[in-house]
Amino acid sequence: MENSDTCTFHIQLLSNTVDMEQYPFIKLIIENDISKEEYKSLLNMLQYLNDKYDAQKEEGLIDFTSLLIHFAGMLNEKLDPNDTIQALKKEGYYPSLMNEFIDILYRYEARRRRR
To answer: What InterPro entries is this protein classified in (predicted)?
Structure first.
């Protein structure tokens, strides 16, 4: 077996021993073949957006749609923004920011349905 085949096999074995539904973000990373560099880049972007969110909230801003647009625009093309936000929320990454993103998406969807 080739080294990468062995790694893939080992990951499959490990994923069968863990309830991956408890780790939806990690599951997305594995299923979408996100590299270590892509993963680090995503986490750096999330930290940046969370810092901006905290600063804007402190300044009294109440609309954070621009942060969601930044997130969706800069997110790796292998990942779906909605699925990624839900997975991050479920695993507890940046809870305030993810709740804000979910609220924005919910309001957008509600407005869209009323049309």
So the answer is: DUF1878, YhaI-like_sf
